[in-house]
Amino acid sequence: MLSIVLYTLRTGISPMPTLGxxxxxxLPLLEPDLxxxxxxxxxxxGTLAFALADRCPRAKVVAFELSPLPFAFxxxxxxxxxxANLELRRQDFLRASFSGxxxxxxxxxxxxxxxLAPKLLAELSPGTRVLSxxxxxxxxxxxxxxxxxxLYRTPIYVYVVPGGFGRQGDPxxx
Length: 174
Ligand SMILES: C[S@@+](CC[C@H](N)C(=O)[O-])C[C@H]1O[C@@H](n2cnc3c(N)ncnc32)[C@H](O)[C@@H]1O
Known about the structure:
By secondary structure, the chain is of the alpha/beta class. Helix 4 (68-80) links the parallel strand 2 and strand 3 (86-89). It is globular and about 40 Å long. Helix content is 30%, strand content 21%. The chain has a single domain, classed as Vaccinia Virus protein VP39 (Rossmann fold). The structure holds S-adenosylmethionine. S-adenosylmethionine (SAM) is lined by residues 7, 11, 13, 15-18, 40, 42-44, 47-48, 64-67, 70, 92-94, 107-108, 112.
């Protein structure tokens, strides 16, 4: 319990899972035959990571989690019901390379989204999709925004990494 509190303070967010209604609207945004690497930034208890692995069996899901207890839970879950296409990493995603990813999925908080934005822009190829629910990437214009019919009217933002000169969100852009 103490480790959850400490890591919530360290990472800025608790391992709150993506709820069912949000999951049910987010997962169909990814084609079942999607190939390549899906990055799940902050796996928590694995709610979204395992669902992504099931939804896209031809893709490889790499799920990052720093907090030891949720990570141990994911690890145990993977031992008990392995997903061949799921890789769990106890690692700070801000220190990982995103290059080559096909899709990035996140449920984080505003501070993390601000730190993430320049990294996404620098490391992802133009055209890469970024799905984030609840929190937006400030300064980025979503391709689509879905609103979940739940208590919080949870927004799901679908972004596409822009390409070329003057990339959206690029502080150097005119
Ligand atoms: C709100 S939970 C989301 C859990 C899961 N993605 C889901 O949707 O069910 C966010 C998780 O991100 C983790 N986290 C936050 N910052 C992180 C970082 N820099 N590296 C790895 N994990 C991080 C937290 O420990 C927390 O478990």
